[in-house]
Amino acid sequence: MVFTSQFSLSIELSPILPIASIASNTAAGVMSLARNLRVYIVIEEDLVELFGRCRIADNIASSFRSIVSKSEPLHNLCAGIDIHHGPGPTVIRSLAVQQQVYFATVLQCSFLSSIYTTGSLAEVLAQAFEYRYKGAPVDYFTRSPPSREGIANFLQACSEQTSDYRW
Q: Which domain of life does this protein belong to (predicted)?
């Protein structure tokens, strides 16, 4: 008897709670973001944990934002192939006001990429994550360290999309 009343209640409430549409919209949004960024979103979050806490001087932040945010119109090479000069999805996301930790990460990765080669910088960062993973206490929750290739992809995106800024 209890089963019948619970079943009818759930059927009556199902049109009121749009759980299926919320779940599908959230999943679609996450997948869209991952496709737009074209790098591993988890690796970006790991790098944000490493670089995002640093405070960026206001004069550097404002000059970096103003130079990097400039975008030129599309140039049509031929039918269906356009070239766009300016920030891509990785940098555009960091330029949003509410993304301060992400902005600090992109700015620092851009700076480091201008000094070091992408491969050597990615190798050092991957080793740092590996040491942090291995050195964590047994009862401490840790994620597996990001791959060198994923870090290199993020660094390459930062370098390419912020190349107008002259370090």
A: Eukaryota
Domain interval for residue 95: 39-161
Q: Is 66 or 136 the better-scoring residue by pLDDT? A: 66
Side chain identity at residue 58, one-letter code? D
Band the pLDDT of 89: cuts 50, 70, 90.
confident
79 and 13 in a common domain: no
pLDDT recorded at residue 9: 47
Residue found under tokens 């944990």: 49
Q: Quick one: pLDDT at residue 126?
A: 95
Q: What is the rounded CA–CA span in Å between residue 46 and residue 51?
A: 9
Classify residue 153 as exposed, middle or buried by CB count within 10 Å of its CB (0-12, 13-18, 19+). Answer: buried
* DSSP one-letter code for 164: T
